[in-house]
């Protein structure tokens, strides 16, 4: 038994309140996964998304850029199905991205592996797929960038 509908709604509301309190100026904190949906299951880990507010992923080539936001463009042509490469379109000069960008064939791309390697710390020392995990395997942290549009593959 996972819980009553009322219990699930209560857990969701508590998660939303906690997420609002934990969100900071540069990042939005989102409890996701089964616990984020209000389902408390024995043995399940806690999935958390940290969404960076100072970077966005865009699809359109003719968009107006905000000067304080770094923009990445999705490139799905030369990548595996369900994956995309993030090409740097507009860089604010924020030091944060300096160690995560690599040059490939004349363009600059976000390196997911470099990002995860440099973001590991005492609390999240393990790289676990696309996430960072704590040493007990109870929390998975995904570092995310916002996109205001659906990728073409998701529209079909």
Poorly predicted segments: none
In angstroms, what separates the terminal alpha carbons? 36 Å
List the helices and strands in order.
HEHEEEEEHEEEH
Assess the beta-strand content as a share of residues.
25-35%
Which structural class is indicated by helix and strand composition? alpha+beta
Radius of gyration using CA atoms only: 18 Å
List how many beta strands DSSP finds: 9
Global outline: globular
Helix content: 10-25%
Largest sheet: 7 strands, mixed
Description:
With 156 residues, the protein is α+β, with helices and mostly antiparallel strands. It has a domain at 45-150. It has four helices and nine strands; from the N terminus they run αβαβββββαβββα. It has helices at residues 5-22, 33-36, 112-119, 152-155; strands at 27-32, 46-58, 70-75, 85-90, 101-104, 107-110, 126-128, 131-133, 139-147. Strands 1, 2, 3, 4, 7, 8 and 9 form a seven-stranded mixed beta sheet that branches. A two-stranded antiparallel ribbon has the order 5-6. Strand 8 and strand 9 form a beta hairpin.
């Amino acid at each position: 038994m996972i819980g009553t509908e009322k219990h699930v709604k209560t857990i969701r509301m508590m998660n939303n309140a906690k997420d609002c309190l934990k969100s900071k100026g540069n990042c939005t904190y989102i409890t996701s996964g089964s616990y984020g949906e209000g389902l408390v299951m024995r043995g399940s880990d806690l999935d958390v998304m940290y969404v960076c507010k100072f970077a966005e992923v865009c699809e359109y080539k003719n968009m107006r850029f905000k000067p304080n936001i770094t923009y990445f463009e999705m490139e799905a042509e030369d990548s595996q199905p369900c994956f995309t490469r993030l090409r740097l379109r507009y860089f604010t000069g924020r030091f944060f991205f300096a160690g995560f960008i690599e040059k490939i064939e004349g363009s600059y791309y976000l390196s997911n592996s470099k990002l995860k390697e440099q973001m590991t710390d005492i609390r999240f020392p393990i790289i676990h797929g696309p996430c960072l995990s704590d040493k007990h395997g109870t929390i998975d942290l995904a570092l995310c960038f916002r996109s205001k549009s659906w990728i073409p593959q998701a529209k079909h």
